[in-house]
Amino acid sequence: MLASPAALLLLAIAAPAxxxxxxxxxxxxxxxxxxxxxxxxxxxxxxxxxxxAVGSAxxxxxPDGYEELDVGDLWVMPGMIDLHCHVGGTRDINDMVYQxxxxxRVMTSVIPDNPALRVGLAAGVTTVLFIPGSGTAVGxxxxxxxxxxxxxxxxxxxxxxSLKTAQGNNPKSYxxxxxxxxxxxxxxxxxxxxxxxxxxxxxxxxxEGPEPERDIQLDVFRALNAGEAQVSSHTxxxxxxxxxxxxxVREFGIETFIDHGSMDAFRGAHLAEELEVPAxxxxxxxxxxxxxxxxxxxxxxxxxxxxYQKRGHTRIGFNTDSPVIPQETLxxxxxxxxxxxxxxxxxxxxxxxxxxxxxxxxxxxxVGSLEPGKDADVIVLTGHPGDPRTSVELVFIEGELVxxxxxxxxx
Length: 411
Fold this sequence. Notes:
Elements: H1 5-14, E1 22-30, E2 38-47, E3 50-56, E4 67-70, E5 75-78, E6 80-85, H2 115-122, E7 125-130, E8 138-146, H3 152-155, E9 156-166, H4 169-174, H5 180-205, H6 220-225, E10 230-235, H7 238-251, E11 256-260, H8 269-274, E12 279-281, E13 286-288, E14 301-303, H9 304-310, E15 316-318, H10 330-339, H11 348-353, H12 355-360, E16 378-381, E17 392-397, E18 400-404
Parallel strand pairs: 1-4, 1-5, 6-7, 9-10, 10-11, 11-12, 12-15
Antiparallel strand pairs: 1-2, 2-3, 5-16, 7-8, 8-9, 13-14, 16-17, 17-18
Helix pairs in contact: 5-7
């Protein structure tokens, strides 16, 4: 039966108006894609919150009905990603009664659109991994968030975003009597329990065993062992990082990324590369090492990212540990890495702010590069992001303009 004219009119009124697409013209697009990572005189097409196409403005046509925005001599690039953030909400989430707290979830403390995230957004940070503190060997679960949206549901990228582990001085300092042997034992023990829990659920779901009793402390290990989340490992100094790789990656096969990786941790960069473990470095970009420590012979400042790179590591990213270093200085970490010797001829600084952390967190299907089908998280800036003179002028998240420096410059 045909609908009446009145019914059709009501349907037309009730249906949401289709959002027009956006055609963004710029002087240069840093796409961070494997193919055409840089496009001069570029055109970026956005539709329904996704990247529709990226290419030369001379070769791409603008579809009918699209709004056109020409930013002149400005550049565009993907939104920046920080995988070590403590300013997503109430800080600092540290439950230090026990050394292993895998059931702690910081998602319950998220404060959407809080001031620290708003300033970070003005510097081009569009995605963060908000994580617990590092006072214990296993601190709990982080959550991946978009920074410029106003509700938790809109912000959420993935939960759990990661499981936070910590080695080195922090758990040693806060846990009485907790030296390297003990915190490594704690991590190994909880990972073994987590593996057994995952395998019990796998057997049940395959009809090969009884239904296990649910343990909310171990639930995260189902995601970790299934490759649906990663371990963000607060690990530093060479011996400590080697323990991280030995326990979490070699023994248990859990996707892990090095978080901090400072001091002389770069001495094991070749092994991290062999095991395909990203190094998300910072907030220290350089370390002083005297001859007395045996790492250098002239007391010079050593760039951490440069030292990883010299040893063949290719998955180098950057973090702030905000608010230890303010969220808005993420791009400066990349610039300092270049200042202290990182070879940027292959856009290593830009990739370390975008696609490398996206791959490390397993969210590169959505963010990290300007490619068709990915979220339209796009920043418009005055030049290379590693240059401290560069400023961010516009930020789009999922195609929505969420920051305009002309209206209110925050950074």
